[in-house]
TrEMBL record:
Domain Formyl transferase C-terminal: 208-279
Domain of life: Bacteria
Name under which the protein is recorded: Methionyl-tRNA formyltransferase
Gene Ontology MF terms: methionyl-tRNA formyltransferase activity
Keyword Transferase (UniProt): yes
Upper taxonomic lineage: Bacteria, Bacillati, Actinomycetota, Actinomycetes, Pseudonocardiales
Length: 313
């Protein structure tokens, strides 16, 4: 089929590479300006437009895909189907309906759960045992169209969001090829998303990464794992200065006291009291293993905390 790709960064580039090796023909590439990504991590940076130009595919840049000129370009190139991958803003119904068959969106979650933003981060925070990607029809509601096909990826107890990113980004191409095959040859029994099982998440911002010591140690470990690597780290305050947590674990023994109290060493780390009703002493604490101070210097937590008894806000 003749494809118009709405793609951005490494997700879009890897998908385009797969399409170029397939029997399908990419006739137009629509991408965001590279400036839209701002100061995002280097692991995401792989301009899809560069690969498109190398193969003689015309490229259009848009912040939002909403204009009549774009609709005209899609029709001029006789696009039969659209494919969207890591498209960050709105695609209007006029645009996603311009290809003959409409537009397929790919989303890095097992819809209907984790629609919206930062799905891999939120899934790790919530302790999910698997994540995945979904190819679904684009309609007027964000990430709510009928599901064409999905693939799952297991989550291990030590995985970070960066691990899951590298594990899922290579699946967007094969998943899309599967979806296009089904569109062409069937079966056409699309799965309607059940709103009773749907969840929608907002974009993560700095306050979302703040450690609240009244949450369980297990939940806080998940938060740290979700925000390691290139993502803004989980953080707290020590003596009025920001302290980022790079690695953490659940303490071996239960402990009690006041939330946020640094009170004992465990291996090379330090235990911080955490959890709801922590004063009862029936919950495990959070062991800080590696931290980074506000001068961007990384420390083994046991070396950073010279004395016990400090409080983390």
């Amino acid at each position: 089929m003749r494809v118009v790709l709405f793609g951005y960064q490494k997700w879009g580039s890897r998908l385009l590479a797969t399409l170029l090796e397939s029997r399908h023909e990419v006739v137009l590439c629509v991408s965001h300006p590279e400036s839209l990504g701002g100061h995002e991590p280097a692991i995401f940076q792989e301009p899809v437009a560069d690969l498109a130009r190398e193969h003689g595919i015309p490229v259009l840049y848009r912040d939002k895909a909403v204009d009549d000129e774009l609709v005209a370009a899609i029709k001029e190139h006789d696009a039969e189907i659209g494919v969207a991958c890591n498209w960050r803003t709105w695609i209007s119904p006029e645009v996603f309906s311009a290809p003959t068959h409409g537009t397929v969106n790919t989303h890095d979650a097992l819809l209907p759960k984790y629609a919206g933003f930062s799905p891999l981060n939120w899934a790790l925070i919530n302790g999910e045992s698997q994540v995945g990607i979904t190819a679904h029809w684009m309609d007027a509601d964000l990430d709510r169209g009928d599901i064409i096909t999905q693939r799952t990826v297991p989550v291990t107890p030590t995985d970070t969001t960066e691990d899951l990113f590298f594990r899922t980004v290579e699946l967007f191409g094969p998943l899309t090829i599967d979806a296009l095959d089904r569109v062409e040859h069937g079966p056409h029994d699309w799965l309607r998303q059940d709103p009773e099982h749907a969840s929608f998440f907002h974009r993560r911002q700095d306050p979302d990464n703040r450690i609240h010591w009244d949450r369980s140690a297990k939940d806080l470990v998940n938060l740290v794992r979700a925000q390691t690597g290139p993502y803004p780290n989980a953080w707290c305050e020590h003596e009025g200065r920001r302290l980022r947590v790079l690695e953490a674990s659940v303490s071996r023994n239960r402990c009690g006291g006041t939330n946020g109290r640094v009170f004992a060493r465990e291996g090379t780390g330090v235990i911080v009291v955490a959890g709801p009703d922590a004063w009862h002493g029936d919950q495990h604490g959070l062991v800080l293993q590696r931290v980074k101070d506000d001068n961007d210097v990384e420390h083994v937590a046991g070396d950073y905390f010279r004395r016990m008894g400090d409080y983390l806000a």
